[in-house]
């Protein structure tokens, strides 16, 4: 008889077994039932909603994506503090409410800063003030 | 109930994996990911410890201090990663590399 | 659940005001002189300076005594809040002549400085691991940005990336350690952890492991061997004002937290750790002392010098007596004045091209007798030569350590290393007075910089000759740790 505690892992074992068998079952069934034949260029190409790929699949993304993604992470994670606050909202009362208003006010000032500095501008349509206008002089020095 | 030790073994393994990643990987982004793994190992340990603490005799419940701490770790880690990625991006733009071995101009 | 708002403000008054100041600075930057470089920068710098000085002055009105669940405002916390505010003000002074070299982000520097100072003040009040962790990360994350502040310079980015990796790694160790301390004691509060630690004859393995990991995390901040590797690189690569702030602020952060942990949390049980701390102190002294000798770069040299000062602080920590705690507080204050003066001189002599090779100070005595005098004072104080404050600081540390028979070897070793360090400080003096100048351009010193240099120099003199007021303040601050 192994360690009694290991019994707790049986559901996990079952789930893992189910996942593996489901995946392999699908593969085996499609292998058995599917029509097998040679390959052709269409079959080898990357799947893009049934159309032929228009551009190479591997290309560099604009650095703007990373900037937006980083800013997204920052603001997104703050939600983590809203959940526990929402759960205990009643018992915290006025104090909790004011605290959260302050918290969000701080976030909004941060957001304002991000927008005003042009970090969310995608194209050259509205050139960013101060950050970009200053950049060339440093490059030159 | 799964004993506490099992959680700690898991957390210890994850932490060690992260540490190995930090020591062996040469790509800055992967090093940062390894550090995140270490932080997650610590989070796992915090939550597990919280779950197994004896309840407060007065209220009959355990205060969720450890889980609250995890919230702080997550938020702080996100801030840290945003700053770290910004610096890694500056590194890539200026020196055209993300390999930590190439960043060794400052010596002795 | 009831939270007393007025009590929270009584504890975190300085922090609240600093946070407010930081937000006001951001808004000012956005509203004043849109799109231009100098307008908002001047406004933000003036506001930051005024605000920091006002909060510093206000902190002398505060009375210690408030205590709550998340923090405490004892005289120790208050002492370090004033210390950090003074450091921030001095850093603004060091940054002012440097600012012309920045082509972007001039207004953000003072803002970031205010937010780091907020984190440092928060830390000095921490009596809970949650406050400790949040404050520490606020400090380090902002310092990452300040180290990589000039992304056009490869060495600034290099400093940033090294600092980020090491800083994040130390944070991971720290959280893991905190998890184990929490798991074995059931609380994040220092008072409860201390009660658990001192109720037991010997610590359980999990708790020992947790405390050790937390100490590793703090060792990185303090720059103790073997966690010192980042110091020389980051000091050299980061912009000089950042280095100045880092050298004093980050070290003091490590000191504050180690003192809280060793003196308050571990309490009497810390006696078991004396050997570990003494060993670390000896290694740190050795590394700092020997590493500084071959240096030819001014900031890197000051980095190694900082490591050896961390060694002296560790000697005091290993001693574990009220006298040694007071000595630490005295030590960091003298270090603040001597270091800030040295970094400001570096900013001025490397004015044109940001080159900090030691050649820059050759023949400084002929080019600017005033700067030469300031740098001489600061170097002699760092070396611990008698009439200056640095000597008395080292003297206090060693006098406290000698009282403990087990540490006599460490005292002897520290003396040896202090004498060794005299060699490389004297090499700097030789460059100032005996060599011919490499760069003969005119050294422009603004009125503000002159005032700050004069202030630092006078403080180093004054606290060396008449130490009593500072000693009393330091002892009062330290005593609240031993209640």
Feature tags:
heterotrimer, A: 141 residues, mainly alpha, Methane Monooxygenase Hydroxylase, Chain G, domain 1, B: 108 residues, Helix Hairpins, 71% helix, 0% strand
Describe this structure in words.
The complex is a heterotrimer of chains A (141), B (108) and C (483). With 141 residues, chain A is mainly alpha-helical. In chain A, 64% of the residues lie in helices and 0% in strands. In chain A, helix 4 (79-87) runs antiparallel to helix 5 (89-116). Chain B is mainly alpha-helical and 108 residues long. The N and C termini of chain B lie far apart (55 Å). Chain C has 483 residues and is mainly alpha-helical. Chain C has one domain. In chain C, helix 1 packs antiparallel against helix 2 and helix 16 (389-402) packs parallel to helix 18. Chain C starts with a helix and ends with a helix. The relative contact order of chain C is 0.09. Classes of the chains: A mainly alpha (141), B mainly alpha (108), C mainly alpha (483). The interface between B and C is large, with 46 and 45 residues.
Radius of gyration of chain B: 18 Å
Separation, N- and C-terminal Cα atoms of chain B:
55 Å
Order of helices and strands of chain B: HHH
Number of strands of chain B: 0
Name the quaternary structure. Answer: heterotrimer
Q: Any idea what the shape of chain B is?
A: elongated
Biggest chain contact: B-C, 46 and 45 residues
Query: In the residues of chain B, how many domains can be counted?
Result: 1
For the report, how would you describe the main beta sheet of chain B? none
Quick summary of this structure?
The complex is a heterotrimer of chains A (141), B (108) and C (483). Chain A is mostly helical and 141 residues long.
Describe the SSE topology:
The complex is a heterotrimer of chains A (141), B (108) and C (483).
Chain A: H1 10-33, H2 41-44, H3 63-77, H4 79-87, H5 89-116, H6 131-140
Chain B: H1 4-24, H2 28-52, H3 65-95
Helix pairs in contact in B: 1-2, 2-3
Chain C: H1 5-31, H2 38-59, H3 75-95, H4 108-124, H5 129-147, H6 154-185, H7 190-199, H8 205-222, H9 230-237, H10 240-266, H11 274-292, H12 298-319, H13 322-349, H14 364-367, H15 369-383, H16 389-402, H17 408-434, H18 447-465, H19 468-479
């Amino acid at each position: 008889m192994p360690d009694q505690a290991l019994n707790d892992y049986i559901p996990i074992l079952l789930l893992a077994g189910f996942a593996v068998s489901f995946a392999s079952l699908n593969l085996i069934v499609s292998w058995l039932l599917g029509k097998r034949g040679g390959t052709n260029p269409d079959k080898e190409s990357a799947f893009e909603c049934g159309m032929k790929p228009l551009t190479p699949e591997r290309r560099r993304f604009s650095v703007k994506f990373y900037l937006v993604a980083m800013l997204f992470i920052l603001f997104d994670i703050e939600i983590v503090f809203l959940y526990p606050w929402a759960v205990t909202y009643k018992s915290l009362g006025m104090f909790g409410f004011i605290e959260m208003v302050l918290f969000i006010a701080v976030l909004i000032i941060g957001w304002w800063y991000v927008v005003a500095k042009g970090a969310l501008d995608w194209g050259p349509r509205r050139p960013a003030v101060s950050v970009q206008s200053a950049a060339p002089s440093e490059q030159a020095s | 109930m799964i004993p506490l030790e099992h959680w700690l073994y898991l957390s210890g393994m994850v932490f060690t994996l992260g540490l190995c990643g930090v020591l062996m990987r040469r790509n800055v982004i992967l090093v940062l990911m390894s550090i995140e793994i270490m932080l997650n190992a610590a989070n796992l340990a915090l939550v597990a410890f919280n779950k197994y603490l004896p309840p407060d005799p007065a209220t009959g419940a355990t205060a969720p201090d450890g889980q609250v701490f995890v919230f702080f770790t997550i938020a702080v880690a996100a801030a840290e990663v945003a700053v770290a990625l910004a610096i890694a991006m500056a590194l890539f733009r200026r020196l055209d590399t993300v390999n930590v071995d190439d960043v060794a101009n400052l010596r002795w | 659940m009831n939270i007393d708002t007025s009590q929270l403000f009584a504890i975190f008054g300085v922090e609240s005001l600093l946070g407010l100041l930081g937000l006001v600075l951001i808004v000012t930057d956005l509203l004043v002189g849109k799109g231009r470089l100098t307008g908002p920068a001047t406004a933000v710098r003036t506001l930051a300076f005024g605000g920091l000085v006002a909060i510093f002055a206000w902190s002398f009105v505060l009375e210690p005594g408030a205590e709550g669940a998340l923090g405490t405002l004892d005289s120790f916390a208050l002492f370090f809040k004033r210390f950090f505010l003074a450091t921030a003000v001095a850093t603004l002074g060091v940054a002012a002549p440097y600012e012309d070299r920045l082509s972007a982000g001039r207004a953000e520097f003072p803002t970031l400085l205010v937010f780091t100072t907020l984190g440092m003040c928060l830390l000095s009040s921490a009596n809970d691991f949650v406050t400790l962790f949040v404050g520490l990360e606020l400090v380090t994350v902002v310092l990452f940005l300040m180290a990589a502040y000039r992304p056009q310079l490869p060495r600034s980015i290099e400093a940033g990336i090294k600092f980020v990796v090491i800083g994040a790694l130390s944070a991971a160790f720290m959280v893991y350690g905190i998890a184990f301390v929490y798991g074995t004691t059931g609380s994040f509060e220092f008072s409860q952890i201390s009660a658990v630690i001192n109720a037991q004859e010997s610590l359980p393995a999990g708790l020992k492991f947790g405390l050790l990991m937390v100490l590793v995390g703090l060792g990185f901040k303090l720059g103790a061997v073997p966690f010192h590797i980042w110091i020389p690189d980051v000091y050299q690569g980061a912009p000089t004002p950042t280095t100045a702030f880092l050298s004093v602020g980050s070290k003091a952060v490590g000191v504050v937290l180690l003192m809280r942990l060793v003196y308050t949390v571990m309490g009497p049980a810390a006696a078991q750790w004396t050997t570990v701390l003494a060993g670390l102190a000896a290694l740190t002294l050795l590394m700092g002392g020997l590493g500084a000798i071959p240096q030819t770069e001014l900031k890197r040299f000051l980095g190694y010098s900082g490591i050896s000062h961390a060694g002296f602080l560790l000697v005091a920590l290993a001693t574990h007596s009220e006298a040694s705690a007071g000595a630490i507080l005295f030590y960091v204050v003298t270090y603040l004045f001597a270091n800030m003066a040295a970094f400001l001189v570096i900013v001025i002599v490397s004015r044109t091209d940001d080159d900090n090779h030691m050649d820059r100070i050759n023949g400084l005595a002929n080019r600017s007798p005033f700067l030469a005098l300031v740098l001489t004072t600061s170097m002699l104080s760092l070396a611990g030569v008698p009439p200056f404050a640095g000597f008395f600081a080292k003297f206090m540390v060693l006098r406290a350590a000698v009282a403990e028979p087990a540490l006599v070897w460490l005292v002897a070793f520290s003396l040896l290393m202090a004498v060794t360090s005299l060699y490389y400080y004297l090499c700097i003096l030789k460059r100032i007075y005996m060599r011919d100048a490499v760069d003969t351009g005119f050294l422009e010193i603004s009125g503000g910089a002159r005032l700050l240099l004069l202030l630092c120099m006078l403080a180093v003199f004054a606290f060396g000759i008449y130490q009593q007021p500072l000693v009393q303040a330091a002892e009062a601050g330290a005593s609240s740790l031993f209640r």
